[in-house]
Structure formats: structure tokens, C-alpha cells
Amino acid sequence: MFDTLSDRLSGIFTKLRGKGRLTDADVDATAREIRLALLEADVALPVVKAFIHAVKTRARGAEVSQALNPAQQIIKIVHDELVGVLGGEARRLQFAKHPPTVIMLAGLQGAGKTTFAGKLAGLLKGQGHQPLLVACDLQRPNAVNQLQVVGERVGVEVYAPQPGSGVGDPVQVARDSVAHATRAARDIVIVDTAGRLGIDGEMMAQAAAIRDAVEPDETLFVIDAMVGQDAVATAEAFRDGVGITGVVLSKLDGDARGGAALSVRHVTGQPIMYASTGEKLTDVDVFHPERMASRILG
Ligand code: GDP
């Protein structure tokens, strides 16, 4: 991810090397090139506009440092703005005062929710928690089974309706799972919900009903970082339809252009909390804006 953007930016910075000082014309030309590089990386237009405005203002401003040459100054400004676009500080999970902490996952089908549910359960178990995974995707025939496989791999119990029990209501499953967690002394409940291939009113209504039933402490929106410009509409729909408290970027190991990763914080107003970086259940990291910005700048 971000290889093209990294290459483009480093090409732009190279052109500034050897310049004694930057004229306004240099700043404008550089800003134009950065703008193009971001747009080509599929970063959403409002994000690009805000980014370029900040870069120009700071580069023209008086913050001329003796220690940095013009190229280094621009790199520093772009780095700082990238960190800002990615959310500034990393944010940790908010735990409930009275357990269990309920974490609901929402997102489109194929975004990586079920995989991330397993990854998060594994992470939290490794920190000494006793998580419970809950299968509320009763739409896709194989979804419950997929979560059970994932749960088995990380050694975490999966709460799901018994086959043939007649319980086909995901809201009921979600509600019952919290009661079960309390009885079984699980301190974290991770609720995997059903997605669709596109934005769908019924899916949103179901996710909202599950949310109302379990009152999650965190509602994490899982988005495939490879989706490009569609990310904005999807993120807005989940922000408005379900309400989200954090974002999980999945498939950051892919070779797409990465615009979703750079747009979703701005669009949702919520922090990116985790990065999912592969198909293995250990391929997950707490998201650090600073590290990601440094990686993009190479
Ligand atoms: P869900 O429909 O949102 O629950 O999505 P899944 O968890 O079933 O993931 C959809 C597909 O993406 C599966 O084939 C996963 O193995 C794959 N996947 C999930 N997360 C990642 C990731 O971080 N990197 C890669 N390369 N593949 C992933």
C-alpha cells in the first residue's frame, strides 16, 4: 500500500534539494504536485483540499528553521499534515466501567469484519482479557461457521444460535450474548454483524437494532483499505446509519492506492484504531498515525 504515493512524494521532494530558499512560486508548484499525487492515490477531494491548504500556509509562513533546508522543511510539513490526516495520536479501546465491554463491528460484506473479530479477540486474550465472540451475521450461510473457525484458532468461545434452535434473529442473539458473557465471566463481547455488498437500508436498520439492544462501548467500522473513492460514501453511510466510535483499516497489506486510509478519519471524524495487514490472525496492529506517516514518506 502507498508505494506509488511514496514514490511520487519522494520525487517531488528530490526536486527541492539544493534550493537555497523557497519562493512562493516554488511552494505553489510543489503544492500542486502534492495535490496531484494525493488525488491519484484516491484520497477524497475535501481531504486533499484541506491538506494542500495547510501545507501552503505553513510553507509560506515564517517558520523558517535554521536547522532544516527547504526540502527538509517541506518534508516535515507534509509529515505533520499526514499525521494529522491520520488522526494525530493513537487511541486505545474504551473499556466499560462495569464489564462486559461490548465492541460491535460493522462494515460491508467482505470488508474483513469476521477476520478482524478473531484478530481482536486474540489480541485482547493475549492481554489477559476473557473475550467472547458473537455471531450476529445470520444472513450469509457460512458466516457463523467462519467465526467458529476463527474463534477456535485463537482459543476464544463463540456465542452463536444452536443449529435448529429456531433463533434466527440477530438482535436476540446479540442481547442473549451479553447475558451469557455476564454469566460466564467474559469481560469483553465482540459482536460480528452482517454486511452487504453495498449500502443497504435493511442492513443499516439491523446494525442499528443490534446497537440499540447491546449499547456498545465501541462501534468499530471495518473498511477495506483497497476500496478507493467508494470509501467516502460507505464511511458516511455507516457514520450516519449506525454511529461509529472508531475505524479499523483492513487489507493494508494490499497494493491498492490507499486513499481510503487517508480519507476515512476526516470523513468519519473518528480515529483509526487498528490496522489489519494480512489473512493470518496475528496480522493486526494498533494503528499509529505517526508510524504510518513515516512509512508513507519512506
Ligand atoms: P466480512 O465479510 O467483513 O466478515 O469479511 P471477512 O473477514 O470474511 O474477509 C473477507 C476476505 O478478506 C477473506 O477472504 C479474508 O481472508 C480477507 N481478509 C480479511 N482481512 C484481511 C487483511 O487484512 N489482508 C488480506 N490480504 N486479506 C484479508
UniProtKB/TrEMBL annotation:
EC numbers on record: 3.6.5.4
Catalytic activity: GTP + H2O = GDP + phosphate + H(+)
Domain SRP54-type proteins GTP-binding: 271-284
GO CC terms, sorted: signal recognition particle
Superkingdom field: Bacteria
Keyword GTP-binding tagged: yes
A single BP term in Gene Ontology: SRP-dependent cotranslational protein targeting to membrane
Positions of GTP binding: 107-114, 192-196, 250-253
Main location: cytoplasm
Keyword tRNA-binding: no
Localization, UniProt: Cytoplasm
Keywords annotated in UniProt: Cytoplasm, GTP-binding, Hydrolase, Nucleotide-binding, Ribonucleoprotein, RNA-binding, Signal recognition particle
GO molecular function list: 7S RNA binding; GTP binding; GTPase activity
Family, per entry: Belongs to the GTP-binding SRP family. SRP54 subfamily.
Domain notes: Composed of three domains: the N-terminal N domain, which is responsible for interactions with the ribosome, the central G domain, which binds GTP, and the C-terminal M domain, which binds the RNA and the signal sequence of the RNC.
Summary of the function given for this chain in its UniProt record: Involved in targeting and insertion of nascent membrane proteins into the cytoplasmic membrane. Binds to the hydrophobic signal sequence of the ribosome-nascent chain (RNC) as it emerges from the ribosomes. The SRP-RNC complex is then targeted to the cytoplasmic membrane where it interacts with the SRP receptor FtsY.
Subunit structure: Part of the signal recognition particle protein translocation system, which is composed of SRP and FtsY.
Protein's UniProt name: Signal recognition particle protein
Organism encoding this protein: Pilimelia terevasa
Taxonomic path: Bacteria, Bacillati, Actinomycetota, Actinomycetes, Micromonosporales
